[in-house]
Amino acid sequence: MENAKTPLLTIVIATKNREYYCIEAIKSILSLKSNKIELAVSDNSDSDLIKIFVESLIDIRLKYVYNNSLTSSIGNFNRALALATGEYVCVIGDDDGINPEIIDITNFALCNNLDAISGSMCANYRWEGTDAPNTLFTKMTGSTLTIVPFNGKAEFIDINSALYEFMNNGCTNYADYKLPRLYHGIVKRKILEEIKDETGEYFKGLSPDIYSSLSISNKINRYIFIDYPITIPGVCGASTSITEGQKKITSKKINDIPHLRYRGEYSWSTYVPRFYCVQTIWADSGFAALDEFKRYDLIKKFNRHSLYSKIILADLSLIKYLFKHIYDDCKSCDRNVIAEVFLTLIEYIKGYLSRNLFLRAKNRFLFIIGFKRLLILTEINNMTNAMDALSKLLKNRNINFQNNLSDVLNIQIQ
After folding, report:
1. Is 75 within the bounds of a domain?
2. For position 2, what pLDDT does the model report?
3. Which of 79, 226, 236, 401 could form a Cys-Cys staple with 42, CB 3.0–4.6 A?
């Protein structure tokens, strides 16, 4: 392994009670033979299984802390990020992995003084045993690595324009707008330390991914998005995307949501309906960041009807909770209930036709006729195997992401 003083990149993981997946994530990352990478893990699990595993390792690149005290999810993420010493940082979940080329991408960022680089979520791993229901077009098979089309194109992003579009579309689904990401992206650690110095914490809100995305967006200038897999998002049976996004088994009451456990007093945004679903958690965390950085110009752009429509597009059973919110909101803000429902219905129809009908039908048609190729690799039993399979596929695709990144820098200079 190369000699290095300050690590180039720290991969950060906060984990609780998902010991098997976290151990597999640690194995996959430490299998890379490079001292340019550091792994920081904060373990808040009830058991000491991860601790026992870590104690069996001899690897100075791993920084691990075990603390099973009553800690909020956000508190555990803050603890994990405080361990990082790398020039850049990437946060992933305990069931996720990375593309080994993230080291080369981060080195490019360092050499060209970039604040952040994010990639597309085009390589996704599904662990065995998620028990997620099949969809109309997709069979939910475990131990699979799914690769959706990508082209390796890189581009500088106008962050303010992306933020305005994001708010006009309901302050949710932030990954659709090519915003900078700490979660599954890389960010200069200096920026994160500035955020902590300014606000008191790295993370606030309830969702670390969307909160950090918006806080970082208010601090950086040089940011590139590349249509290329930097990490491997994973999904297991305990993932929020399964328990809430697909199975929808969690209570909708604010006081019952897992994000608020051991959090203490928390002020839920008045702009966001007071019930639990993925969209409300994201929106509330987005507003937490915007309030923190006094981005009232963005708050004024918030399209509440778009948020409302996305909530019921994701889960129609939430309509009773949403209508109660609309009614109460109209009473307190002197709005017309009929007008609010009508505008929400318009957004719902637009969203249903564009995303749930036309887009899915178009993509399925393109897959069928071979214009779009969805690759599903089966019998991928763990994250190390997923990482190896992705590396082999990328080598065969022969996309020169280094040239693409260099080209977009040259265009900006011109």
Report:
1. yes
2. 47
3. 79
Q: Domain for residue 383, yes or no?
A: yes
Domain count of the fold of the chain: 1
Let me know how long the chain is: 414
Q: Which amino acid appears at position 277 of this protein?
A: C
The predicted structure's pLDDT at residue 87: 98
Question: Residue 392: inside a domain, yes or no?
Answer: yes
At residue 388, the pLDDT reads 97
CATH code for position 86: 3.90.550.10
Q: Does residue 249 sit within a domain?
A: no
- Residue 141 pLDDT: 78
Report the pLDDT value the prediction gives residue 170, as an integer from 0 to 100. 96
Q: What is the pLDDT of residues 180-206, one digit of tens each?
A: 999 999 999 999 999 999 999 999 999
Q: In Å, how far are 136, 242, 313 from 140, measured between CA atoms?
A: 11, 11, 20
Phi/psi of residue 26, nearest 5 degrees: -60, -45
Residues in the chain predicted with pLDDT less than 50, given as ranges, are 1-3, 136-137, 241-247, 414
The pLDDT assigned to 258 comes to 87
Range of the domain at 210: 9-241+375-413
